[in-house]
Structures are given as C-alpha cells and as structure tokens.
UniProtKB/TrEMBL annotation:
Any one GO BP annotation for this protein: transcription initiation at RNA polymerase III promoter
Region of interest: Disordered: 90-118
Domain Transcription factor IIIC subunit Tfc1/Sfc1 triple barrel: 21-158
Lineage: superkingdom: Eukaryota
Protein name, per record: Transcription factor IIIC subunit Tfc1/Sfc1 triple barrel domain-containing protein
PANTHER family attached to this UniProt entry: GENERAL TRANSCRIPTION FACTOR 3C POLYPEPTIDE 5 (PTHR13230:SF5), GENERAL TRANSCRIPTION FACTOR IIIC, POLYPEPTIDE 5 (PTHR13230)
One GO cellular component, as annotated: transcription factor TFIIIC complex
GO MF terms held by the record: RNA polymerase III type 1 promoter sequence-specific DNA binding; RNA polymerase III type 2 promoter sequence-specific DNA binding
Gene3D superfamilies reported for this sequence: TFIIIC, subcomplex tauA, subunit Sfc1, barrel domain
Organism: Aspergillus turcosus
Length: 212
C-alpha cells in the first residue's frame, strides 16, 4: 500500500538560488537585441535587476533611436512565481498514422535548410500532449518581481523638420564636448515667418484615458 502511494506522489525539484525578474514587454518580440534596446540596453537591464528601490519602475522607449522621446513606465510588483524550462523531444519531421506501427515517411527536419519558426501556444500545448511522459521539466529559478506596462504612451510630435531640435539632438545629446561647444542660440528678435516652434517636454500627463 505504501509503495502504491509512493508512486503516485509528484517528484521533488530543487529551485536554484537565481535572481530572476520578469518583464512583460508590450510588443511581439522578434528581435531580442532590439527589445533590449527599448529597455535602455545593458544599462537598463542592470537597473531592472539591481534597482535602487524594490519598487523602482522600468523604462521602455518605443523609439530608442530618438533621445528626446518619452518612455513608458512600468508597474513593478512583487511576485512569487517559478520559471520552468520544459524540454520536449525534437521534432523529426517524419510522419505515420496515429496508433500504427507502420514505418515513418517524410524527410527529417535536420536535412532541410530552414530557419526555425517561433511556435505558437497552441502548437506548444499540442507538443506537450503528444509527448506525455517524454518531456523534461527543470526549474530555473524564482521570479520575485514582475514589471508590466499597462499605461498609454505619450503623444509624439515630429521634430524632423525643426532646425533647432536637430541641432540640439546632434550637438548636445551626443555628449561630445567639441560638438557641444558649437551649439549656439539665435537671439535675434522680430522673426514673424517660418518660426521654429519647439514642442513641450511632454504633451500628456496621464497614462490612462480616464480615471475610474
């Protein structure tokens, strides 16, 4: 009786002491390097992993190439989740009738020169159901904090046609001392045509459409 009960118990897994932070990116990630760039690169990732305060918000720039764009601020909350790594048998590409012992047909995937495509959640669940007892589960670590982006981004005012903003972006935001010395402001008065209108630092002070 004890042996039967022992076989029905779930296996035990030890969780590595690894510091993991979850970031729910609002975009569909197809290029990991660009996704990291929207989070301010390695500097931003370092701040997310080692924040000055536990609830410090993460910043996400939808236009990281523009130094004057405003970021999205995350909602940082404590969590108590486990990150699992699930490994299923590699797909061979060969087929045969379900439930039969007929020989496989088709060309193995390893002989086809194609880039691996990102599988959908439906395909992953189907792969798990087709490989019951054959896949491996490995705990990676504890997720103690999660960052989500639920707010609306600020409005964007195009400054590509603004001479002042282009000079400011090139000479000041480059943080090059020689270029910064070249920056000068036109103090002449009386301009009435082709006036360069500079947008404010922010156009919207709210990140939700309505306060309920």
């Amino acid at each position: 009786m004890m042996d039967q009960q022992g076989t029905r118990t779930a296996p035990y897994y030890s969780i590595p002491a690894r510091h993991i932070v979850s970031v729910e990116h609002p975009a569909i990630i197809k290029n990991v390097d660009k996704a990291i760039e929207t989070l301010q690169g390695n500097t931003g990732i370092s701040k997310i992993l080692n924040p000055p305060k536990a609830d410090t918000r993460a910043k996400l720039f939808l236009r990281p190439e523009d130094a004057m764009s405003r970021p999205l601020l995350s909602t940082s909350s404590a969590s108590n989740n486990i990150l699992l790594k699930v490994t299923v048998p590699k797909r061979t590409g060969r087929k045969r009738k379900r439930g039969s012992d007929e020989p496989f047909s088709g060309v193995p995937v390893t002989t086809v020169n194609e880039q691996p495509q990102r599988r959908s959640a439906k395909q992953l669940l189907r792969s798990l159901s087709d490989n019951v007892g054959k896949y491996q589960v490995e705990p990676v670590g504890m997720v103690n904090r999660t960052h989500v982006f639920r707010g609306m981004p600020d409005f964007v005012y195009s400054t590509t046609g603004s001479p002042f903003t282009n000079r400011f972006r090139e000479q000041i935001l480059s943080f090059d001392y020689d270029k910064m010395k070249q920056f000068d402001i036109d103090m002449s008065k009386g301009a009435t045509s082709n006036i360069d209108i500079i947008p404010p630092p922010s156009l919207s002070h709210g990140d939700v459409p309505f306060t309920y």
